[in-house]
């Protein structure tokens, strides 16, 4: 990895900038979900986790960016927080069970983030970056991999249409770009995060194309 890192060093700013803009563009893909919610007039069949998890991860990664003093990470996660707050507001307006669907998971997520930030203040500076990096790696992979919890049912029904295509495609591109950036920085946690994240997203893309389910049925009905 060291040789590849040296080869990519001249492109550090370019890769970091591309990764940042791709990530910001990914955040805007949540607008497609909000558009569907608006058209239906409710949140039926739509999970709030992509938005709640976006705020949670944004705040957690913002703290990590502050530790590393990395401007690209700070910029990206600031946009993540702002946009996902907007998406949560839209979800709240159209949700039928506001407490169970959005307020409860949001409250739990914010309490968890507060605990993480508090932990950083009390942990020893010599180990906090390593341990906090491990925690957010597990957190990020849990959020990215959450759609795969129902993979058995998707395969049985041959229907993976519940996995949002636009979000998954963008997440695949984003994790790959940050993977390159992690190689340049030789940051082990970023490397593990994005290798695993890329694999999880790629698997979801394969499922979407292998089992389009209701999406194909809707297109056939239109014709």
Briefly, what is this?
The protein is mostly helical and 223 residues long. It contains eleven helices and no strands.
Fraction in helix: over 70%
Average pLDDT, all residues = 84
The dominant shape is globular
Number of strands: 0
Low-confidence stretches: 216-223
How much of the residues is beta strand, in percent?
Answer: under 5%
Give a short account of the largest sheet: none
Please report the number of helical segments: 11
Question: Distance between the terminal alpha carbons, to the nearest Å?
Answer: 51 Å
Whole-angstrom Rg: 18 Å
Query: What structural class is derived from the secondary structure elements?
Result: mainly alpha
Order of helices and strands: HHHHHHHHHHH
Key words describing this protein structure:
mainly alpha; 223 residues; 11 helices; globular
Report on the structure:
Helix content is 83%, strand content 0%. The chain has 223 residues and is mostly helical. Residues 216-223 have low confidence and may be disordered.
Secondary structure layout plus pairing:
Layout lengths: L1 H7 L3 H17 L1 H11 L8 H20 L2 H24 L3 H25 L2 H21 L5 H7 L7 H21 L2 H23 L3 H9 L1
């Amino acid at each position: 990895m060291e040789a590849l890192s040296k080869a990519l060093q001249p492109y550090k700013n370019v890769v970091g900038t591309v990764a940042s803009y791709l990530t910001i563009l990914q955040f805007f893909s949540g607008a497609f979900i909000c558009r569907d919610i608006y058209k239906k007039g409710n949140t039926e069949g739509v999970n709030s986790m992509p938005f709640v998890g976006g705020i949670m991860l944004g705040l957690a990664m913002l703290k990590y960016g502050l530790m590393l003093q990395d401007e690209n990470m700070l910029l990206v996660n600031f946009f993540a927080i702002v946009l996902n707050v907007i998406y949560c507001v839209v979800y709240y307006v159209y949700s039928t069970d506001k407490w169970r669907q959005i307020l409860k998971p949001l409250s739990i997520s914010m309490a968890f983030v507060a605990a993480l930030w508090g932990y950083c203040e009390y942990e020893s500076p010599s180990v906090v970056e390593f341990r906090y990096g491990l925690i957010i790696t597990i957190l990020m992979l849990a959020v990215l991999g959450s759609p795969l919890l129902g993979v058995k049912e998707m395969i049985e029904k041959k229907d993976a249409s519940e996995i949002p295509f636009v979000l998954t495609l963008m997440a695949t591109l984003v994790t790959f770009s940050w993977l390159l950036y992690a190689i340049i920085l030789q940051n082990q946690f970023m490397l593990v995060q994005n290798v695993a994240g890329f694999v999880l997203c790629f698997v979801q893309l394969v499922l979407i194309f292998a089992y389009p389910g209701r999406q194909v049925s809707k297109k056939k009905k239109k014709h």
